[in-house]
Amino acid sequence: MAETRKWSEPLDAPQAETNLPGWLGKQLNTQRPWLLAHADDGVIWGKIGANGLITSHQLVPQLSPLLRLVTLQQLFLFGADDEVRLWRDEDGWLACRISDGGGAEAFDEAQILWGDKVVRDFTAEGFTHVREEKQGGMDHVVPLKVTNAELKARQLRLCVRHFIDYDEQTGESRIALSRLTGVEIK
After folding, report:
1. How far is the C-alpha of 73 from the C-alpha of 2, rounded, in Å?
2. Is the pLDDT of residue 3 over 80?
């Protein structure tokens, strides 16, 4: 089977809380504008703005936790061209950059995100606090400008690219690796 190394390359990862802001500053850019982080205490969305990184915690701190290495499980910085991924294993923090390449076959998928009602609009920052009323009020603050009219006709989606690998002996295919490519309403 082909190895996922043709799509990913290792990166240095921050190993201390004080290193996280500088590491994020080096990784975020206009080609990789979105952040999605899963932490012990919740989900954090972010995006690069005119003044640097804006997170959902800055807008709705009671709903979205502070981005801290001590509670972080995994973090994705992503855009159309590539993704930088940070995760923890038993030995510490690891990071890699995943990009299209190596002649890999791939397909895109749009995964539906929660949100059927706008709770609050943060137009200046480019975020919207949305709630999934049909599921008992699940909330998050997405890094998109969204209206109630749009949510009636469309759905929030997380765009994912899956890379396919083939077993040369059996001919079976599998998804070898996936990466985030964007956030949209469609």
Report:
1. 28
2. no
Integer angstrom CA distances of residue 59 from 6, 12, 38: 38, 30, 17
Q: Is 150 exposed, middle or buried (0-12, 13-18, 19+ CB in 10 A)?
A: middle
87 class by beta-carbon count within 10 Å (0-12 exposed, 13-18 middle, 19+ buried): middle
Is residue 100 a contact partner of residue 127, using CB atoms and an 8 Å limit? no
Q: Which among 133, 134, 184 is positioned nearest to 160, based on CA atoms? A: 184
Distance CA 24, CA 35 (A): 10
Residue 183 belongs to what H/E stretch?
Answer: strand 173-185
pTM score > 0.90 for this model? yes
The number of beta carbons lying within 10 Å of the beta carbon of residue 92 is: 9
Nearest one of 37, 112, 103, 80 to 182, comparing CA atoms: 80
pLDDT of residue 7: 73
